[in-house]
Amino acid sequence: MKYLHHIIDKFILSLIGRSCTILSDRDSRIKKELSYLPENFTAGVAVKKKGLYIVIKKQENKVKYFGYHRYPENIDLKLYFKDEEFAYQVLAAKEGIRQAFSEHKVVVEGDLEYAVSLIYIIEIVEAYIMSDQFAEEVLASNFEREISRLQLIFRSLSLFREKGEI
């Protein structure tokens, strides 16, 4: 069962990274949060500290997805879970990332101000991907998608990662 959780976590993390790229062009809430992050800001998100990180980078007020990296260097912010089970709870839509962060289930290495923006961006992406009920429970408001869930998932799955230096 743990192996299945690991596969689900890896798939959802990749989907979140790719969806950030697509939604950075489309969603006004994500555009607003990106404006708080410095140019060329890089972030890595992982299930566990020594695991694979998805790496995203802000360039020209858009997000670029750089895929998985084992030990990313020169990263402004690293975000990972204290326990793999905590990661599964968040990535399988049983709990929101903001709640996990407030309950100290998520570890942040980097500037806390930027971490808050990144966590909100991830929460918005999760709301797009997951069910309407989850979105309303997590965001505690009427969540309106600016692109359909199906369209986002298909575009995300067909998106290539950026090549080159992070």
Automatic annotation (TrEMBL):
Q: Pfam families given for it?
A: SCP2
Q: Which branch of life, at top level?
A: Bacteria
Which InterPro entries does this chain map to? SCP2_sterol-bd_dom
User: Where is the SCP2 domain positioned along the sequence?
Assistant: 43-118
The protein in question is named: SCP-2 sterol transfer family protein
Source organism: Halanaerobium saccharolyticum
